[in-house]
Predict the 3D structure of the following.
Amino acid sequence: MERNDKRGFTDFFRHSAEKNGLLSLVTEEHIEKLFLLTEHMLTVNEQFNLTAIREPSRVILLHYVDSLLGAHLFPEGASVVDVGAGAGFPTLPLAVVRPDLRITALDSTAKRMGYVEETARLLGLSNVTPLVGRAEELANDASYREKFDCATARAVAALPVLCELCLPFVKVGGRFIAMKGRGGGAELSAAKNAIHLLGGKDVALYDTPVLAPDGETFEHTTVLIEKVASTAPKYPRAYGKIAKAPL
């Protein structure tokens, strides 16, 4: 598929959405915005490394479908923090198809958050707020600690580490939705102690591979963790400790 092939993009997106049970979630306007996002991202990518995925059909499958398989798990009108948002995944696709969500895209790289802010403006998304900083520091800031209905993260770190970075942002009664690839089930087993220590419970694992229209599959799991108790003040620790000695 050529980069500027809007009809090809639209047809492939529709077929991919149907194959993955997402057709009811997306409208023509959403597809139009995601085409614009693709064009903009790949243009910026020529000067600033945002993604190694440059073929539009792969962008649809491995960025958009992959980011949206868990979209139904976010409650209506939820405030969401996307930890380690990077080039805007899942922030931007979620913001396009779920305009009811209020998403804070958090990343330590100012240049990437500048790109996310610029792209949100280009797409007319008023529900995205970029935030530059380190998760383990901002989660100890009263302005952000336990202030969000949901936290999410995609392609950031192993689940035991992610839990300590993300659960402190979530209100009691909220949820952490982790988007994982291969090995999500094993990571969940390794994270049981961290989940318990950080106030989480009631874990669900959704094994929903990304399905391409031609039958190719890509592994994807979504982990849903409910926040049932406040996170102890000593968490999160400094990142060096989190990485060296996961809970």
In short: The beta strands are 79-83, 102-107, 128-132, 148-154, 170-180, 200-207, 210-211, 217-218, 221-227.
